[in-house]
UniProtKB/TrEMBL annotation:
GO molecular function: transmembrane transporter activity
Keyword match Ribosomal protein: no
Location of the protein in the cell: Endoplasmic reticulum membrane
A Pfam family this chain is assigned to: Mem_trans
Keyword Nucleotide-binding: no
Organism whose genome encodes this protein: Populus trichocarpa
UniProt family annotation: Belongs to the auxin efflux carrier (TC 2.A.69.2) family.
Protein name per the record: Auxin efflux carrier family protein
Gene Ontology CC: one annotated term: membrane
InterPro entries xref list: Mem_transp_PIN-like (IPR004776), PILS1/3/4/5/7 (IPR045033)
Main location: endoplasmic reticulum
Length: 411
């Protein structure tokens, strides 16, 4: 297979993404005003609560079985490595550029989380359908490719909505807190206002009052001491759960992934829900039908957000260059070295398509759903639009070049 053919195969999926994105840009223009700010917020909520969970759950149930999970055990580790390496590089980028606090969560998220859902689900089937692809028969390639892309989507969604979601949330709340000047408790502030001069000494308590306070303190300390050891453990565990906030950790997409794993990997559920002869196959078919629209709608929202990026924002050019270098130069190079080592030690099977997907996971643009997070928290939307504008504009070249190189490497 010639180099030019590899470029053509790699180019077609990227062109599909660009065409859908261009439609999103057009629908967001003032003349059309279909994907305005309010429309994007409502669509983001729809994607967050309905479409993404349906997409993750239905694809997992349809394409992933217990046997395939055992065979593809290396992919979750590979995705985890992309997040760890991206986070480390993002942290270095923050230190080097001295980025403002309100951008740090966005920088870490963009460096750590690639578009592991939409892009593989578009790129891999499209590459399989191209004549002269290095992956063999188109129908078999597409079936295996969808299984790989689905697992990539599920693992990526779990890490995105548990790890990146909380990073963006924490830095969003930190930013809003830091806008307040050295906040002091209301009581202290009011005391300062009432007593601008030196503080007056209060009347000392009498001996009887002091003895009463002493006895009260002893009673309280005795009550604390009498709390049994298991109760202390229970209280500590409840405090940890309260801080973790499981409602935020278990986002709708993660719940969808859990349901999909159960339906796909447990035989009784699979027999009832999956397959042409399954009595409740209409449930899975309906979820799959709803989930399919998530890819198109999310890509349209991306295009609408890019229009906002054309108007500019206060994002340092060094941050944009740094994120682009991390996602399109450093991470793909690290990925080639990591997968080469994994193949050498026998951790990855010889399937060229599987190796291609593992390599592609290191070379993808930032996750689109980070934009959903910024809109949910109302912080960093304009900055995200600028970062997405530049990273996705360059993705049209970068993803094509890396895809062609990866195809040549695995064929």
């Amino acid at each position: 297979m010639g180099l030019w053919q590899l470029f053509v195969v790699a180019l077609m999926p990227v062109v599909k993404v660009l065409l859908i994105t261009a439609v999103g840009v057009f629908l967001a223009t003032e003349r059309m005003d279909i994907l305005g700010t309010d429309a994007r917020k409502h669509l983001n909520s729809l994607v967050f609560y309905v479409l993404n969970p349906a997409l993750v759950g239905s694809n997992l149930a349809k394409f992933i079985t217990l046997k395939s999970i055992v065979m593809l055990w290396f992919m979750p580790l590979n995705i985890l490595i992309t997040f760890i390496a991206g986070s480390a590089l993002g942290w270095l980028l923050i230190k080097i550029t001295k980025a403002p606090i309100h951008l740090r969560g966005l920088i870490l998220g963009c460096c750590a989380a690639g578009n592991l859902g939409n892009m593989p689900l578009i790129i891999i089937p499209a590459a399989c359908e191209e004549k002269g692809n290095p992956f063999g028969d188109a129908s078999i390639c597409k079936m295996h490719g969808l299984a790989y892309a689905t697992l990539s989507l599920a693992i990526g969604s779990i890490l995105l909505w548990s790890y990146v979601y909380n990073i963006v949330r924490i830095y969003s709340s930190t930013d809003s807190d830091e806008t307040k000047p050295d906040a002091l408790p209301e009581g202290i502030e009011s005391a300062r206002e009432i007593t601008p001069g030196p503080m007056l000494f209060l009347k000392e308590p009498s001996i009887d009052e002091g003895m009463e306070n002493f006895e009260l303190d002893r009673a309280v300390s005795k009550g604390k001491a009498k709390v049994p050891f298991p109760e202390n453990i229970k209280q500590g565990f409840q405090k940890v759960l309260k801080k973790l906030n499981l409602k935020r950790l278990l986002s709708p997409s993660i719940n969808g992934a859990i349901v999909g794993f159960i339906a796909g990997t447990i035989p009784p559920f699979r027999k009832v829900l999956i397959g042409d002869s399954a009595p409740l196959r209409v449930v899975e078919d309906s979820a799959y039908f709803v989930g399919e629209s998530a890819i198109t709608i999310t890509t349209l929202i991306l295009g609408a957000n890019l229009l906002k990026g054309f108007r500019g924002s206060k994002v340092p050019i060094s941050v944009i260059i740094g994120i682009t270098a991390v996602r399109y130069i450093i991470l793909p190079i690290l990925g080639v070295g990591f997968i080469k080592c994994a193949v050498h030690f026998g951790a990855v099977n010889s399937d060229p398509l599987y190796k291609f997907v593992l390599l592609l996971q290191f070379a993808l643009p930032p996750a689109i759903n980070i934009g959903t997070m910024t809109q949910l928290f109302g912080a960093g939307e304009a900055e995200y639009s600028v970062i997405m504008l530049w990273t996705y504009a360059l993705a049209s070249v970068s993803v094509m070049l890396w895809s062609a190189f990866f195809m040549w490497l695995v064929k």
